[in-house]
Amino acid sequence: MANKVRRLAKERGYAVNMQASALRKERSGIIGMILPIYDNRFFSSITQNFERLAREMGYFPITTCTHRDPALELQAVRTMLLYQAEYIICTGSTDPDQLYDLCAKVGVPTLNIDLPGNKSVSVISDNYSGALQLTHKLIDDVQGTCRMLFIGGQPTDHNTKERIRGFRQAHIERGLPIDESQIIPCGYEAPKAKEAIKALFGNGFESYNAMFINSTISLEGVTQALSDAGNLHSPDMAVGCFDWDPLVAVLKPEITMVKQDVEKMLSELFALIRSGTHQGARIIQIPPILGH
Amino acid sequence: MANKVRRLAKERGYAVNMQASALRKERSGIIGMILPIYDNRFFSSITQNFERLAREMGYFPITTCTHRDPALELQAVRTMLLYQAEYIICTGSTDPDQLYDLCAKVGVPTLNIDLPGNKSVSVISDNYSGALQLTHKLIDDVQGTCRMLFIGGQPTDHNTKERIRGFRQAHIERGLPIDESQIIPCGYEAPKAKEAIKALFGNGFESYNAMFINSTISLEGVTQALSDAGNLHSPDMAVGCFDWDPLVAVLKPEITMVKQDVEKMLSELFALIRSGTHQGARIIQIPPILGH
DNA sequence: CTGAAAGCGCTTACAG
DNA sequence: CTGAAAGCGCTTACAG
Hints:
Number of strands of chain A: 12
Distance between the termini of chain A: 61 Å
CATH class of the largest domain in chain A: Alpha Beta
CATH topology of the largest domain in chain A: Rossmann fold
Oligomer: homodimer
Shape of chain A: elongated
């Protein structure tokens, strides 16, 4: 009998109306995620893993990119709540706690990835250890005494702070002094890194023989600055990038890249949801993978 | 009075339930898009523009990546239809016509981007002209007689066919003969391009002085093959890539890249929706932009 | 076990 | 113009 109904339903092309079903069941089946941008390997890979795991759990994944704009983040989350999303994942959000508050009001749990918050669980990379390792690797690569620049990232964001902490610690462990001019967290956009490097030309840049670049987008800006100055190929400069792009990895194998373990971050995130242990603010750190 | 209600609603944190609203209004406000993958500049940029324009039109954009898998494409579209999506955008689909049929059954219009179908309107790049220009540019770049390899892409897909047609035409216009071994549409994955190039080593590869690479993913494979062979830097090889990646553009300025005009493609797509002129199968071609 | 009724939260058409 | 009722398409709780 049930089979007959199913067969008939299929023949006639019947399909449930999820809007109606969701309304009656008071369960939308929707899980929402916001993220800064798609056109970057890290975030687009997060998105693909998010979709895969959400579907595997029987959820319908919804994503929106919010361009690191707090107002857009709020608006996007609000819209997802209107569609009765059951969970909100906040990726690289400028203010995860504000998003938590918004969702908590209607009883929807939030989980953070990439950038942590103080009010819900956060799955992030172990930025400190990754930066410590990368810095050591670059110091090893340099002939003679290393003078390394740290460039890119937001000085106020948790990840950049942790990476700077790892950068400093490696210098301490190797007995290398640091002065503050070595550390330039100029923001995340390419033009900012470009301007910051240009400002250093004839003004101390020549004294550096290593660069810790905080993201591929900063790498883009740094490369533009060097290219404009005509010294794109400075073979004695050790270059590391705390980010991953497979094309960069093959085109510029001499650049050491740090790959955040996106698969593990997302499987951890969904394990929290699956097991219902996502309540309570805490930070779960996933070690990144040092390339080459 | 209306203001009082609005104020009270805001104070109490009231928000409509879109599931209920959609059900009653018989309009979900949802517009869905499927695409092959996110982690690539072309598709992620399409997604960002899609979201922006959909929001501007008051729609709620939903995207899903389907890994060029026909079964996943069908399943993703079916799910979007369950949530009563009002339009389905098919990006780079393996079989847009099948998706059209599925949606037509429930009266939902489909529009194609990137790869065209025969049953609904398609907004794609002018692949023929782009390839013609790129091939001419590479012939210009070569010292002496040009022998150019075409590598990457699916020989069955419309875009690759058109690009090969442009490749051939440029050769004809320049009086250069072509033999079939020059054209290797080995598929879209990096390992395929890598294997194809490796198979040519000691077997004709040395006779080429130019390469027309059909995507950044193929570029990745080609670079791996060259790098494994130790001749990564062959300065006399003219290289072009029918795709765009800003990091490649700055890191390897000697590679000529073709940037598909994603903004124009999407604004054209939404113009069709806005004006209600999306009915009727036809192809709208947008000229890509030749770099450098 | 079966089948009709109630109700999810809205919007709209309609009666007063 | 206002306010109560009907109904969007489901699922569930309940009567028979």
